[in-house]
Amino acid sequence: MTQRRSLRARTAGAREAWCGFQATPAELFGVQVSHATHSCPKRQGKPSERRIPCVAARVLNRGKSLSRKGVRYMDAVATGRVDRAKEPGALALSTLLHALARGTVKVVDLGDVLNEQTLVIQLPPPFANTPGFKKHPVSEYDEKGPAWAWHWYEIGEHVGTHFDAPTHWITGRHLAALHSLDPRTLIGPACVVDIEAEAAANPDVVVTKDMLLAWEARYGRIPDGAWVLVRSGWARRARDADAFFNLRDDGPHTPGMGATGAKFLVEERNIVGVGVETIGTDAGQAGKENPPFPNHAIMHGHGKYGLTSLVNLDQLPPTGAVLIVLPLKVEGGTGCPVRPMALVPAS
Fold it and tell me: What positions carry a catalytic annotation?
């Protein structure tokens, strides 16, 4: 009973501390909360038409009450041991770490394994091709280094699951390279557009504006700063070169982002980039479009990014996931292999 009274007292103290904030707990932390409306104690006896919402005794986290650790943290705010000016962001991060620890938010790895068998795009003559991946030893617990192992890598920028910077394409040649990317754009919401059935019926299918509008009619408007990820089912072909490239006499036949879709996403929406399961963000036959390779031309010309050879998109919901992409900070780099991660609410 003593412990229960202590928890109630702490919660009451934290409740008073929150009276000074001008936003609801849901706005501050992105979690559902039960809240009551109270007059701020500091303003009692003073005329005020505004009643400021504050946290009640229970924060609803999948039906469970706030943990003792959470109560202690809120108590620290109430007693001034935590800087209240910094509190909204601090508690938001604390809430995220708690959700990760409890498994109510899971991490999905969207990067494929990188090795000597990783498939690499092959351009027709007279164009030059990139090398694949090779690992060379410097020392491996031997006379060159008895207590350590390390390697040097031979690899092209655009190999495996990789990131395309705007400067990768001629339309973005004067825009951001890897070292000058805005880090705020490397974390954002993920919108997953499922075209797996269409790609199975027609490997040359491209995502159009009409398809994106239909997606929005079902799931809501694509938010600013979002990644649009095209789920085509192509990741299952990544260990089979013939199926992955799907080559015929006239070149590869693979799905991608079409011209009208790319134009819509940069002119009528404000995304940060497009990600795909295929080896490039454009369709295999995109060289015949106008402009050629329209997603590259349009996206990078507007300072947007690309992600290719993604895996595990089938583990992401259409909306609600957060994508984290951290390319290497290579000066002048046009791209690099990456290991994107998605934070996903556990079902």
Answer: 168
